Amino acid sequence: MHSDFKNKPIYIKAKELYVLINKAVSNKTPYALKDQILRSAISIILNFSEGYGRFTNNDKKNFYIIARASLNETIACFDLLSLHETISETKTRTFELLTVELQKMLSALINSQK
User: Fold this and answer.
1) Which of 44, 66, 78, 113 could pair with 57 in a Cys bridge, judged by C-beta atoms 3.0 to 4.6 Å apart?
2) If you average pLDDT over residues 56-82, what whole number do you get?
3) Residues 110/55, Cβ–Cβ less than 8 Å
4) Which pLDDT score is estimated for 3?
């Protein structure tokens, strides 16, 4: 069974964020930080997807909350990443726009699960 969650704006934006981060890390990035930022970005995608497939609002809401927490973790990791990498202004701005948009989208989704 194929779900339509892959067509949802949150999923698409979270994938864009993952690709951006993947391009920002390099061999200079400490392994622990590289691993953590990639895992937190993946967690946004996976928790949204899992929540989307749940049946009860409380179940959905729980996974969406975890996705938003993973987004916050990704933001903190990106801040640390900038200590080790020279990240272009364009990538930084794109990161900021994507994360602000995802925060709003996930918060609205969480609030809609009454």
Assistant:
1) 113
2) 97
3) no
4) 75
The whole-number pLDDT of residue 114 equals 82
Q: Can you read off the two tokens belonging to residue 113?
A: 């699960």
Structure confidence by residue, pLDDT tens digits, 84-101: 999 999 999 999 999 999
Q: Where are the alpha helices (DSSP H) in 1-114?
A: 9-24, 31-52, 57-81, 89-112
Fold of 29-112: de novo design (two linked rop proteins) (1.20.1440)
Q: Any idea which residue has 């622990």 for tokens?
A: 32
- Give the DSSP letter of residue 6: G
Q: In angstroms, rounded to a whole number, what is the distance separating the alpha carbons of residues 69 and 89? A: 25
**Burial class (CB within 10 angstroms; exposed 0-12, middle 13-18, buried 19+) of 15:** middle
- Token digits of residue 64: 């969406």
The yes-or-no verdict on residue 1 having pLDDT over 90 is no
Domain boundaries, the chain: 29-112
